[in-house]
Design a protein that fits this description.
- This protein has helices at 6-37, 54-83, 89-95, 97-123, 126-132, 134-137, 152-168, 173-190, 213-221, 233-238, 245-253, 255-258, 261-274.
- By secondary structure, it is mainly alpha-helical.
Length: 275
C-alpha cells in the first residue's frame, strides 16, 4: 500500500471497529436485556405479540455491519479534509471552551433530527422507496438489530450528516463521538419493541417532545406516519404524526387500565368488522 494511503486505511479501520463495537454492544445488549432477561417483568410493555424470526435478526445484523462500513467510507471525507488542514473546525471548537462543547453536542443532535426527518420523508417517495428504504421496512416487526439495517443509498444519506456538520460547524472530535453514542442508543431502544419511556398518570408521554418506542414502531407498522428520529416536533408541525399514536402509547404503558396494545388492536378490528 502506498504510504500516503496508510493514514486513510488506519482511519477507516479504526472508525469501522469503533462503530461495529458500539452497534454490537447496544443491539445485542438491548435484545438480551429486554427480550431475554426482562421478558417476563416487561411483558405488559411489549408493543406487539409476536417476536421477529431469527432469520430476520441475522439479516438485520449483516445489513447493519454493511451500513457501518459505508459510514466509515463516507467518514473518510471528514478525515481527508482534516488531514489536509482544510477543516479547522475541531481546533476552533477546542478554543471555545466547555460551554461550546456541550452546546455543539445539543445542536448536533437537534440538527440531525431535522436532517433525518426530511431525508426520511424524501426516501418514502414512491420513486425512491424501493432503491433507498425498502430494506429497513422489510423489518415490519423491528428489533434492536434493525437500527442500521439500511439499503446502500440510505446508509450513505445517513452517513453524510456528520461530514457536512463537521465542515460547517466548529465541533470537537469527542463531541462527534458522543453524538454517535447517542445515536446508536436511541436507535436500538427505538426499535426494541418494548415501550420504555415514562408516562403521566393519564397515559400520555411524560416527555412529549421525545419520540417513544411506540412512536417509531407505528412507523414500521404504518409507513406513512411518524418520520421523526429523536423528537416529535417535526411530525407535529408537518401533520405527519400518526393519529392513533397517543392511544397506542397509553395502551402500551397502562395495560391494567387501558388494555394491552394487542387487545386494543383486537377491539378496533372487531369494531370495523361490525360496522
Amino acid at each position: 500500500m502506498p504510504s500516503f494511503l496508510a493514514p486513510f486505511a488506519e482511519s477507516w479501520l479504526r472508525s469501522t471497529l469503533t462503530d461495529v463495537t458500539r452497534y454490537v454492544i447496544f443491539a445485542v445488549g438491548v435484545w438480551l436485556v429486554l427480550w431475554v432477561v426482562l421478558a417476563i417483568p416487561l411483558a405488559s410493555r411489549k408493543i406487539r405479540d409476536s417476536a421477529p424470526p431469527a432469520r430476520q435478526l441475522m439479516i438485520e445484523f449483516a445489513c447493519s455491519i454493511r451500513s457501518i462500513m459505508i459510514f466509515s467510507t463516507v467518514g473518510l471525507l471528514t478525515f481527508g479534509l482534516f488531514h489536509a488542514g482544510l477543516m479547522p473546525g475541531p481546533y476552533i471548537a477546542r478554543s471555545l471552551g466547555p460551554v461550546w462543547f456541550w452546546t455543539s453536542l445539543v445542536l448536533m443532535i437537534v440538527a440531525h433530527d431535522a436532517w433525518f426527518y426530511w431525508t426520511h420523508r424524501l426516501i418514502h417517495d414512491r420513486r425512491l422507496f424501493r432503491a433507498f428504504h425498502r430494506r429497513h421496512h422489510r423489518s415490519n416487526n423491528p428489533s434492536p438489530f434493525t437500527a442500521y439495517s439500511f439499503d446502500l443509498g440510505e446508509a450513505a444519506i445517513n452517513a453524510l450528516f456528520v461530514p457536512l456538520w463537521m465542515m460547517l460547524v466548529p465541533t470537537q472530535w469527542p463531541v462527534a463521538g458522543l453524538f454517535m453514542l447517542h445515536q446508536i442508543v436511541r436507535n436500538t431502544l427505538g426499535h426494541s419493541g418494548y415501550e420504555l419511556f415514562p408516562a403521566r398518570r393519564d397515559g400520555r408521554p411524560l416527555l412529549p417532545w421525545l419520540t417513544t418506542v411506540t412512536h417509531h414502531d407505528l412507523h414500521h407498522a404504518q409507513a406513512g406516519w411518524n418520520y421523526g428520529l429523536y423528537f416529535t416536533w417535526w411530525d407535529k408541525m408537518m401533520g405527519t404524526e400518526n393519529p392513533d399514536y397517543l392511544k397506542r402509547f397509553a395502551a402500551a404503558v397502562r395495560p391494567s387500565r387501558l388494555g394491552s396494545a394487542s387487545h386494543l388492536r383486537m377491539r378496533e378490528s372487531a369494531k370495523r368488522s361490525s360496522s
